[in-house]
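Field log, afternoon session.

UNIT: design team B
ACTIVITY: writing a sequence onto a fixed backbone
BACKBONE:
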């Protein structure tokens, strides 16, 4: 099948409510092809998006944030009530909204000062955010015209985060048929079966295979990398919202955080490694509700198991016991403080 036939078939009404899979080598050629889909689809059927879902390029909400960002101007102006209802979910997928809206019910973890962030989010937090975002889209689509067909063309779906894949999987399960939604996912050759297994069989549409020339990676020039880093630093300054936006897009941001926590609380991270809940095999893991690149953890686990590091970390258990005793003392001090006159 050539590219023109693929474009004609991909936007067909026959695939409404279905997941269409494209197997083709990733790169500029595949992305350019997907970028043509909105032009073919919107002229006759409704609205379409072409986004990249690659976790390593766009972070946890890669692709999803592009969809919501394209709608944000409209829903902020037309449905402030809906924005208020789903403020918590929206500021996670679009951190820049913190400048214009206030989250009504932040958690203690959210409100803690940066240097005091020792709490962890509940493990199901990301899943609840996913469902809230789908509820938001459902209500918004009704506002803007419930009969309008939508199509999402997702490049690099096999490289999406666990949370990103769950969003689209749940979106198709809950609203795919009702919206007549088409989800087109582009994956590397040989990945179609694994991706198809993530969706209900009744939602699966056709598969397509296209052959593009393999593209060599283009490493960034060191001088250009330095220039971009300095420009980014100037732009962020001390703006916490801007820092969060940049951090959200930097997939490798979490490694330093884990290393810092391992230094501060070696027992906590050391004990957590064997209890990791697997995310995307070979790419990411989920630890206490957040998604992390897998490689640093695997390397850390190897170090913890080596004889040299077992000797170095022999005092970890003792550190944990000391921390528990300190917490007990702190609780007693707080109880005594409550009994003081005037409390």
């Amino acid at each position: 099948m050539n590219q023109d036939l693929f474009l004609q078939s991909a936007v067909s009404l026959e695939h409404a409510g279905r997941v269409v899979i494209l197997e083709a080598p990733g790169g500029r050629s595949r992305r350019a092809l997907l970028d043509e889909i909105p032009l073919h689809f919107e002229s006759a059927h409704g609205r379409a998006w072409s986004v990249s879902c690659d976790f390593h390029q766009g972070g946890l909400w890669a692709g999803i944030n592009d969809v919501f960002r394209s709608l944000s101007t409209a829903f902020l102006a037309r449905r402030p009530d809906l924005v208020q209802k789903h403020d918590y979910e929206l500021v996670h997928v679009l951190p820049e909204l913190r400048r214009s809206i206030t989250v009504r019910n932040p958690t203690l973890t959210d409100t803690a000062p940066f240097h005091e962030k020792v709490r962890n989010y509940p493990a199901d937090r990301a899943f609840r955010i996913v469902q809230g975002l789908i509820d938001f889209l459902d209500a918004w689509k009704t506002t803007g015209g419930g009969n309008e067909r939508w199509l999402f063309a997702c490049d690099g779906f096999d490289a999406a985060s666990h949370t990103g894949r769950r969003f689209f999987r749940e979106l198709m399960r809950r609203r795919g048929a009702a919206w007549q939604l088409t989800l087109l996912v582009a994956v590397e050759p040989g990945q179609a079966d694994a991706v198809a297994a993530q969706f209900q069989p009744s939602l699966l549409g056709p598969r397509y295979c296209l052959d593009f020339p393999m593209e060599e990676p283009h490493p960034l020039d060191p001088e250009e990398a330095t220039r971009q880093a300095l420009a980014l630093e100037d732009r962020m300054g001390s703006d916490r919202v801007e820092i969060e936006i940049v951090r959200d897009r930097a997939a490798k941001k979490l490694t330093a955080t884990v290393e810092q926590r391992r230094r501060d609380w070696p027992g906590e991270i050391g004990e957590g490694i064997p209890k990791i809940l697997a995310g995307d095999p070979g790419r990411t893991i989920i630890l206490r509700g957040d998604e992390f690149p897998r490689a640093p953890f695997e390397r850390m686990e190897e170090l913890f198991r080596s004889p040299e590091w077992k000797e170095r970390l022999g005092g970890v258990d003792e550190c944990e016991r000391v921390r528990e005793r300190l917490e007990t003392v702190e609780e007693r001090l707080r109880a005594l403080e409550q009994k003081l006159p005037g409390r």
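LOG NOTE: The chain is about 55% helix and 10% strand.
NEXT ACTIVITY: expression trials, pending approval
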